[in-house]
Amino acid sequence: MKKVNLDELLCCPECGGLLLESKERLKCEACDKAYAVVNGIPRFVETELYVENFGFQWNKHKRTQFDNEKKTPSESFLRTIGLSPEVVKDKLVLDAGCGSGRYSDVINRWGGKVIAMDLSSAVEACYENLGNRGVMVVQGDILKPPLKKESFDVVFSIGVLHHTPNTKQAFKSILTLLKPGGHIVIWLYHSYNDDCLRMKLSKFYRKVTWRLPKRFLYAVSHLAIPYYYLNKIPFLRSITGRIWHIAEHEDWRWRVLDTFDWYSPRYQWHHTYTEVWKWFEEEGLVNIRISEPPVSISAVKPSNKI
Ligand SMILES: [Zn+2]
Hints:
The chain is an alpha/beta fold. The protein folds into two domains: about 150 residues, Rossmann fold, CATH 3.40.50.150; about 70 residues, no CATH class. The chain has twelve helices and eleven strands. The strands form two sheets. A seven-stranded mixed β-sheet has the order 7-6-5-8-9-11-10, with helices on both faces. Strand 5, helix 4 and strand 6 form a beta-alpha-beta unit. The protein starts with 18 loop residues before the first strand and ends in a 6-residue tail after the last strand. The site of zinc ion has 8 residues, from loops.
């Protein structure tokens, strides 16, 4: 596969200016701001801001969710929401909020040219996983992307935008990076269960849990390991299933990871199809399609009129 020339895609996140490479730095031609390149990854943020939890979890679980010879959950999920080799092959694809790279891995296998971006130190894990396969990894903020406008054929973001301070703003921001005629797909947490006791309590617990020391919360998340077996007892399930949200994946590592992933983020917004569909319409997107699981929506940016 032809290597992506990252220099042609990057720009200054502050002013949109051209970046010039000098030693281990990228310097903005227009505003003079400099950005470091550390361990092969251009860094456009000085801190992880509000996503230290994600840096923590993805460096602990670098490959927990990766497809393997036996199971391909990431590939299946991408197909469900409308991505396939036909859509991404030889295309320039942005994975907005890549984590340790489980979806970039699939896109790369399908022949897409991937730029994987994350705000957190998950980029270290992603680079370790995919850096030697031609996937370009960038540490940057979705709300202030260091990427040139209208440069990607496909932009996707799975389970990420709802963890920013403003989901709609984040959606609008990644949309600016899509070429006219390009394809966008997002998946967000839904709010259809928000009225049930379990979710009401979850909201309440989360007011505290995201503030807890990460190591402590991570240790507590290990309760998901035995809980899985206890929860097979119908009587217990009828009670515990209503009072907390604990991951029940068959792989114990996933259970710990997903439980931590639920309770640790600073922001966790929930949405409906109707709400998100409106955002797509407001932006003038066409071929808007919904898919399972909620809330997953894809669309095409109309081509420029001549
Ligand atoms: Zn600049």
